[in-house]
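Q: What structure does this chain adopt?
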Amino acid sequence: MKAVCIVGSARSDGSTAYLVDTIRKGMESVGIETVRYSIGEANLHFCTGCKTCYEDGNCIWKDDVETIVSDLFDADFVVIAAPSYWAEVPGQLKVFFDRSTPYGDTNPSRRLWRKKPAKGIAIAVRAGSHEEENVQILNSIAHYYGHLGIETVERVSVCRVDTLKDLLSGHQEEIDRVYRIGAGLLEG
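A:
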């Protein structure tokens, strides 16, 4: 079994990354192989809207998107975690979502097809206390999953976290839950 875990933050070492690494530890504890991508470190170009991918299934840009999406299509589990940037996913993650158009179910020329069903976990982290803003982020991730044939099976929302220190000092329950989700994926 394989999992692709994406840190959808500009930073690869903050609270969002910590939660991704925690779920990875849970997965690895039951023998699931994991690979981690950090969107903030990926080479990504903006979608130009040229629709070339609708003609031949290929994007004009040759960067990290195809590598990441190819891994997603081979994965049994996918995790995407994102911090809140004005109640939305960060721009870098949105660029990745947009650039996945060649592989989505609305593209008549798509080249990659899911070889097996996959389960997706969505995680949202924000500094503020309004849960509804994280719901928007979780919905964006679930929407992305839907177009790639990934079933959203878990949603995790963590509020009142501005720094990794905030997460570690006041959110052990959420950290433990994320680990348990990873460790329990083979049970269901």
